[in-house]
Specification:
- Keywords: DNA-binding, Phosphoprotein, Transcription, Transcription regulation.
- Residues 141-206 form the HTH luxR-type domain.
- Residues 3-119 form the Response regulatory domain.
- Strands 2-1-3-4-5 form a five-stranded parallel β-sheet, with helices on both faces.
- The chain is elongated, with a radius of gyration of 26 Å.
- The N and C termini lie far apart (68 Å).
- It has 209 residues and is α/β, with parallel strands linked by helices.
- The chain folds into two domains: 2-138, Rossmann fold (3-Layer(aba) Sandwich); 144-204, Winged helix-like DNA-binding domain superfamily/Winged helix DNA-binding domain (Arc Repressor Mutant, subunit A, Orthogonal Bundle), CATH 1.10.10.
- The longest helix has 15 residues, at 176-190.
- Strand 1, helix 1 (11-22) and strand 2 form a beta-alpha-beta unit.
- The chain has ten helices and five strands.
């Protein structure tokens, strides 16, 4: 029997899901929680095979509850069952340690199938969730120099020519103090320690004028 804990702040949802799962020959609902806090407590006490976790609850949301459960019990298998498909919900939930992510609009049979698959060690994601993850993976990471302003890029290009701060100020018709601020910003945004590393970065990324 697959033991299951249901965490959802809507009583009717808990009743409906519990009734369906208890009718399955290989499943048993051993606990229910109406908020994240009680879900954490019951999860650590009962150690169910599967935890069905809602995301939005009144006191403690499902993301925080998932995080706390995983911190104390890394082997826990948590399936998020929610109505939300937003990026700000999906990624934090998976990063917190959820194994699978299902929508409440899924058919009862699909949730039961997800429970069995997750129990067997698989990770089950709704097609919409998979699509979002793939889009994020395909999206090229922002280059560090993309954060530079036009003036900071000009200062960096002057740095590649070996010019001092005063020479850069004279070339760009700005004050020495302003140049120093720009140089400091360039080093911070490129995440380098000194001018030499900044110049090397500029050459490696074809930023030389």
């Amino acid at each position: 029997m697959i033991s299951i804990l249901i965490a959802d702040d809507h009583e009717m949802v808990r009743i409906g899901v519990s009734s369906y799962l208890m009718a399955q020959p290989d499943m048993e609902v051993i606990g229910e929680a109406d908020d994240g806090g009680p879900a954490v407590k019951l999860a650590l006490e009962l150690k169910p095979d599967i935890i069905l976790m809602d995301l939005v609850m009144k006191q403690m949301d499902g993301i925080e509850a998932t995080r706390q459960i995983i911190e104390s019990w890394p082997e826990a298998k948590i399936i998020i069952v929610t109505s939300f498909i937003d990026d700000e919900k999906v990624y934090p939930a998976l990063e917190a340690g959820a194994v699978s992510y299902m929508l409440k609009t899924s058919k009862a049979g699909e949730i039961a199938k997800a429970i069995r698959s997750t129990y067997d060690g698989q990770s089950i994601l709704e097609p919409e969730v998979t699509g979002k993850i793939m889009n994020r993976v395909r999206k090229p990471a922002e280059a560090k120099h993309d954060q530079l302003t036009a003036r900071e890029t000009e200062v960096l290009q002057q740095m590649t020519k070996g010019k001092t701060n005063q020479e850069i100020a004279d070339e760009l018709f700005i004050s020495l103090k302003t140049v120093k601020v720009h140089v400091s910003n360039v080093l911070a945004k490129l995440e380098v320690q000194d001018r030499t590393q900044a110049v090397i970065y500029a050459f490696n990324h074809d930023l030389v004028e």
